[in-house]
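Collaborator request, handled under Task 6.
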Amino acid sequence: MIFLKKLSPTNHATKQYLAWLKDSETQRFTDLRYQKFSIKKIKEFITEKNKSKNEHLLGIFLKEKKIHLGNIKIGPINFFDMTAEISYFIGDKKNWGKGYATEAIKKTIQIAKKIKIKKLKVTGFEINLASKKIIEKNGFFREGKLKSELIYKKKRYAAFIYAKII
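Structure tokens returned to the collaborator:
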């Protein structure tokens, strides 16, 4: 249903991508919600990640139409311990709830194995039930809890650290 590929600053820093980053609903559970964006900043971000040795930014694309749905990132990678974090979002809201994030994580786990990562970690917020379900479907277990980590609508919520040994 989907494929992952490296993003190009020229081809993928689009008005659509910018709209995802400016959409408060799309970004409400990400660290991106604190930042201001422009096409120029997106191009710089993609370029920086493409040059990075310890982060891999990939676009999530719908196979049949080659539509960019969102992104997934591995990193930072700790090469000494061979651990890494992953983060992701589906920016195209009409494609929420269709299993694309679950599939993207499955594919990302395979990429992580190829680069010899032994443990993956992902943070999920207690209020983000959809993400919790996606993470757990991919075999991640809850390893820790950070109390009062997220402020959403003037209320504090916990974050859970999930991990998977691969």
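The cover message to the collaborator said: "The first helix runs from residue 9 to 12. Residues 2-165 form a domain with the Aminopeptidase fold (CATH 3.40.630.30). Please let us know whether this matches your experimental observations."
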